[in-house]
Amino acid sequence: MGPDLEPLVARLRAAGCVFAEDEAALLLEAAVDAVRLEGLVARRAGGEPLEHVLGWVEFAGRRWSVGPGVFVPRRRTELMVAAALALPAPATVLDLCCGCGAVGGAVLLGLRAAGTDPVLHASDVEPAAVVHARRNLAPLGAAVHEGDLLSVVPSVLRGRVDLLLCNAPYVPTDAIPTMPPEARDHEPAVALDGGADGLDVLRRVVAAAPGWLAPGGSLLFEVGTDQVPGATTLVEAHGLSVIVVTDEDPDDDAATGGTVVVATLDASRVTRGAASPPSRRG
To answer: How confident is residue 267, by pLDDT bands cut at 50, 70 and 90?
Structure first.
């Protein structure tokens, strides 16, 4: 550890930062001068998420713009990207509750790397998130819409969406106070609160999905392990077939801890999900 890092590490460690050395190096890299560095360290030591302080989050191998008031995509959500890329290549992708746009953007880049170039639309109700989503996705040629779920999505996409991604809020309301302060105090409630059982927003999405999906199209969303039975029942009640992809092996350091529901419109094509991403299935 260099002399420039030692006081930063000590200060961050005293503030409760578990990965103080790594964070100190990133903050030092981000600072253009001592005044800027002091401001960044003060924000982080005060409890602001590191990603908000730096202005970016690393997700699926790429840095994506984020900032204050914006939900920070979790590493476990990379499983949704892997599950999406395991499906047949889509022509049209829709990313609801897109936040900063990292999920849809990562899927789009993965598809392009595999030789396909679908259309991507994204939407979010939170204005601050839309600002960053446009910053991240506009260079990729994607369209970002501000508003509530599907209400702002072009109607021409009805019945044409091959891949519907939705990293909806799914934390039960009563569990919000138990979340880490970084999330509870600095991320918008609309991006966290999923209602009494955490599935309120997902009920709306699943109910609407059959009208927007193309035949054989799939809706992917994330839930907690204890929500799988309720989510499965919900999906099947709307005529969608379902598989659940998990990555929760406690003995595997590379496991993300994610759980993704893959709901497909046409039951005859449920085998679309048989080609699993590099993860465990539950």
So the answer is: very low
* More confident of the two residues 252 and 54: 54
**Contact assessment for residue 115 and residue 85, using Cβ atoms and an 8 Å cutoff:** no
Mean pLDDT of 187-191: 96
Residue ranges with strand state E in 27-115:
56-59, 62-65, 92-96
Q: Would you say how long the chain is, in residues? A: 282
Q: Is the alpha carbon torsion for 135, 140, 144, 150 positive or negative?
A: negative
Q: Is it the case that residue 120 has pLDDT exceeding 90?
A: yes
Residue 223 near residue 231 (C-beta atoms within 8 A):
yes
Q: What type of residue sits at position 156?
A: V
The model's pTM: 0.89
Structure tokens at 27: 């903050």
- Asked whether the beta carbons of 221 and 250 are under 8 A apart, the reply is no
Average pLDDT over the chain, rounded to whole? 91
What ranges make up the beta strands (E) of 2-75? 56-59, 62-65
Cα(259)–Cα(281) distance, rounded to whole angstroms? 9
From the list 67, 69, 129, the residue with the least C-alpha distance to 104 is 129
What is d(CA 42, CA 177) in angstroms, rounded to the nearest whole number?
Answer: 24
